[in-house]
Q: What sequence folds into this?
């Protein structure tokens, strides 16, 4: 069953990713990014990461992407115009570099992991909310608390940045 | 060396004046004069009280009591703790510094009452107390050096206190620069001590030094001691670095009394006495100390005879008396040297404060040719100054007699001819102080001011110091210091004592004859001596010689070679060249900075591609 | 019909690599600041997938924790980043990245 699920959602992720990159309109890009995130959530489930899958849907696909959509609509961002001028490096070397990156990454992945290492649903149960919470509040307590400071600073930064020019 | 006593909070002793410095230095302008004097005098007096409390709690103080407050520097083998220690030597110095310091602070509240920068003056004075007490209490050379440099700084600040006067700022600079030469020697000595003893802590160094046998030739121990002596000659105004002290009289008179007579200038004596364990094993260095002291004593005494500025006379007298102390140290009579530090602090502080009272009475007049007959006009000042006079002249049984006697006996024990030179110097000392006294207080008044007696805040300390000058000889300091410096078994030769007393009385009598009975004789003697008199009057042209041989060549060389050649040519050239090179490289590399975000991103991608390629090529990245 | 062969771990990692490279490509191709920002989010997601895959492979929960922290940071980043984009738009009335290039010379 899981090979089929993997095939379906991996396919959706890749297609949505391509659409996100190629679409000129930010709303289309944002919606396809939500598609990528949703299918990734399913893949997380297949890998036994229940908690992360839920967080992916709620935090990423939910909260963060809504923020993106909100800003797009607030700024009334339209489709990109045709390229007028661009970075020479990005323009001429962009596609070859991206292809080379893909090739190298693929080669490295293939070299590092033999094909007989397989994934079967249910083999790993360490991703439950209980296990994750356990690790979070014991082993990673300090980083967790530090993150709270980070988030606080981010909120303050966002408020300061957005406040003055809104008048 | 563990003490049986519990902590005495020794740190309070230096920190109290520091507190006064902070309060007066930061808030002084808003406090008003009353509060400033209260803080300044109060903190020093509190420090004095705390010294008394600590000493009485620690008596009999046979061993040194050490308090550690943490680590200051820990770097490899070098470990410098913040450590204060008190033994009998420190106790004596503490009592002198805080006791006389308190008296002079009280005096200064009267003396400085009409001056600009009242709070600045007391802030500096309190800061000086802090550093001086740190110097005395330190239990290692580096902490001592902190105090050493700090008192030098305060001395500079206070000599140049009237900073609108060019001569005052120049005198401050001179003191500071000449002291740098001495500090240079002190620093080198510390390096050598650390190299050879592996520590800078007094107990550790002296423990190891005691195990050594006396050096027969010129070894590293002698080198250390000579370098320490270089430091001491700078701070304590010995030949050849004494030239700054007479000029230092540009500072306010309480400063001259406290820093340039009673306390700071004896720091060199204290330091050498503290390092006695090193010096006793370096006979050559000891001999040099004795010679330096003797030469200084004679030289300064002869100059003192010819001067007309009342403070200059006392300044050369200070240099001369410091020479006596070094003579004592060089003869191995460390306790006699410290004894003289104490009695000298009493009578010299009194001389300066009395001179200050005279100057105050005459509204700034310092030339004794314009004084005279003041005996009846300012009787309290005269009476107290007379006490200092008999004390420094070595009239028995007053304080100067006792300590000078100890020194001369030790000198006789060392080399009999040193005793005779010392006796002649004692005669000269008696002569010039008497000359000064007679010209100031006897005969007809030659000035045109209206002398008035000083207020009680000034005469009070004078009276206390007068009592100390008279009775200070009975403090039995050499006996008290016996745990630190074993008493020398020198016989008490009453003939030698009688000769030195006679020399002192002869000096007074000669002065009486020359300046009271026939006041015209000195002028004819001076003209008869001609060139010799002029040479002495002009301080042997030492300043001129220093200017000609050291200062001018240095300044000219610095201007033509170092400034125009090295600085403008090579250093500036290198700096400008570096700037030009940076601009050139920047001109090329700034083309990378297009300001276009995607261009930057492309560079990042290119970079990560290269990293990945390198990883792939090197065959890494397998789990 | 025989059951399909099990999915190799390599497949997950390759998917992660594809999504990451798509993110890179998007960052290079797109001119809209917001879309570029979304490309960054896509790269972060790709890395998250790698973390979760490794976590599965090593049978350890730590990878999930990393993913969790990445999410937190991403949220903070989104808040600040979007605020910056708002400010840029207020000041320059454009979202086109090529027109925001005063950071040169």
A:
């Amino acid at each position: 069953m899981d090979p089929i699920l993997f095939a379906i959602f991996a396919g959706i992720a890749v297609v949505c990713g391509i659409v996100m990159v190629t679409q000129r309109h930010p709303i289309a890009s944002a919606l396809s990014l939500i598609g990528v995130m949703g299918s990734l959530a399913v893949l997380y489930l297949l890998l036994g990461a229940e908690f992360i899958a839920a967080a992916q849907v709620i935090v990423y696909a939910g909260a963060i992407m809504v923020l993106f959509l909100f800003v797009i609509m607030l700024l009334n961002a339209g489709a990109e115009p045709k390229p007028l001028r661009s970075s020479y490096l990005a323009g001429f070397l962009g596609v070859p570099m991206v292809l080379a990156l893909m090739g190298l990454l693929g080669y490295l992945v293939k070299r590092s992991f033999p094909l007989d290492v397989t994934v079967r649903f249910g083999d790993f149960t360490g991703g439950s909310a209980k296990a994750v919470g356990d690790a979070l509040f014991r082993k990673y307590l300090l980083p967790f608390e530090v993150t709270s400071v980070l988030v606080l600073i981010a909120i303050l930064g966002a408020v300061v940045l957005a406040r003055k020019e809104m008048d | 060396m563990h003490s049986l006593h519990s902590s005495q909070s020794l740190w309070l002793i230096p920190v109290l004046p520091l507190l006064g410095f902070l309060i007066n230095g930061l808030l002084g302008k808003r406090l008003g004069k009353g509060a400033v004097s209260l803080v300044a005098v109060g903190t020093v007096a509190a420090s004095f009280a705390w010294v008394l409390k600590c000493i009485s709690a620690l008596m009999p103080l046979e061993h040194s009591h050490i308090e550690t407050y943490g680590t200051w520097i820990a770097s490899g083998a070098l470990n410098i703790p913040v450590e204060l220690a008190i033994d009998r030597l420190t106790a004596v110095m503490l009592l002198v510094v805080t006791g006389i310091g308190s008296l002079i602070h009280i005096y200064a509240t009267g003396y400085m009452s009409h001056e600009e920068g009242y709070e600045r003056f007391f802030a500096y004075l309190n800061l000086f107390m802090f550093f001086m007490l740190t110097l005395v209490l330190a239990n290692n050379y580096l902490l001592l050096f902190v105090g050493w440099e700090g008192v030098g700084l305060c001395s500079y600040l206070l000599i140049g206190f009237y900073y609108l006067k060019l001569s005052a700022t120049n005198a401050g600079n001179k003191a500071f620069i000449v002291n740098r030469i001495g500090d240079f020697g002190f620093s080198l000595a510390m390096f050598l001590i650390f190299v050879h003893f592996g520590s800078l802590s007094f107990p550790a160094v002296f423990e190891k030094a005691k195990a050594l046998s006396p050096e027969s030739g010129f070894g590293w121990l002698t080198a250390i001691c000579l370098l320490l002596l270089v430091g001491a000659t700078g701070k304590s105004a010995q030949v050849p670095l004494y030239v700054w002290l007479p000029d230092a009289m540009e500072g306010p008179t309480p400063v001259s009394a406290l820093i340039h007579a009673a306390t700071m200038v004896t720091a060199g004596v204290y330091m050498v006495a503290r390092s006695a364990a090193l010096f006793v094993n370096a006979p050559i260095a000891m001999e040099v100390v004795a010679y330096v002291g003797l030469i200084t004593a004679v030289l300064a005494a002869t100059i003192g005879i010819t001067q007309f500025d009342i403070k200059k006379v006392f300044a050369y007298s200070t240099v001369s008396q410091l020479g006596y102390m070094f003579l004592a140290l060089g003869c191995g009579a460390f306790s006699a040297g410290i004894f003289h530090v104490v009695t000298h602090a009493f009578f010299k502080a009194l001389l300066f404060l009395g001179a200050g009272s005279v100057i105050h009475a005459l509204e700034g007049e310092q030339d004794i040719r314009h004084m005279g007959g003041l005996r009846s006009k300012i009787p309290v000042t005269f009476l107290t100054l007379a006490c200092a006079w008999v004390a420094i002249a070595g009239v028995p049984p007053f304080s100067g007699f006792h300590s000078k006697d100890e020194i001369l006996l030790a000198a006789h024990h060392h080399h009999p001819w040193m005793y005779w030179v010392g006796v002649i110097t004692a005669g000269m000392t008696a002569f010039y102080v008497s000359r000064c006294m007679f010209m100031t207080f006897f005969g007809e008044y030659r000035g045109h001011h209206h002398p008035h007696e000083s207020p009680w805040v000034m005469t009070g300390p004078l009276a206390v110091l007068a009592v100390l000058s008279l009775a200070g000889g009975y403090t039995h300091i050499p006996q008290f210091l016996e745990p630190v410096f074993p008493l020398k078994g020198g016989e008490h030769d009453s003939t030698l004592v009688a000769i030195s007393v006679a020399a002192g009385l002869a000096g007074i009598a000669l002065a009486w004859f020359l300046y009271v009975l026939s006041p015209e004789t000195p002028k004819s003697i001076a003209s008869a001596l001609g060139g010799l008199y002029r040479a002495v009057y002009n301080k042997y042209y030492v300043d001129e010689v220093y200017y000609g041989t050291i200062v001018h060549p240095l300044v000219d060389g610095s201007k033509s070679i170092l400034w125009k050649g090295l600085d403008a040519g090579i250093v500036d050239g290198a700096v400008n060249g570096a700037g030009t090179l940076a601009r050139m490289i920047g001109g090329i590399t700034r083309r990378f900075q297009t300001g276009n975000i995607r261009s930057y991103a492309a560079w990042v991608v290119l970079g990560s591609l290269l990293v990945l390629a390198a990883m792939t090529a090197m065959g890494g990245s397998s789990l | 019909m025989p059951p399909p062969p099990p999915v190799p771990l390599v497949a997950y990692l390759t998917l992660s690599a594809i999504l990451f490279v798509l993110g890179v490509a998007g960052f290079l191709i797109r001119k809209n600041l917001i879309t570029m920002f979304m490309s960054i989010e896509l790269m972060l997601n790709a890395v998250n997938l790698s973390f979760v895959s490794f976590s599965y492979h090593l049978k350890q929960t730590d990878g999930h924790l990393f993913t969790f922290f990445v999410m937190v940071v991403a949220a903070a980043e989104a808040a600040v980043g979007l605020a910056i984009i708002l400010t840029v738009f207020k000041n320059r009335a454009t979202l086109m990245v090529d027109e925001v290039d005063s950071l040169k010379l």
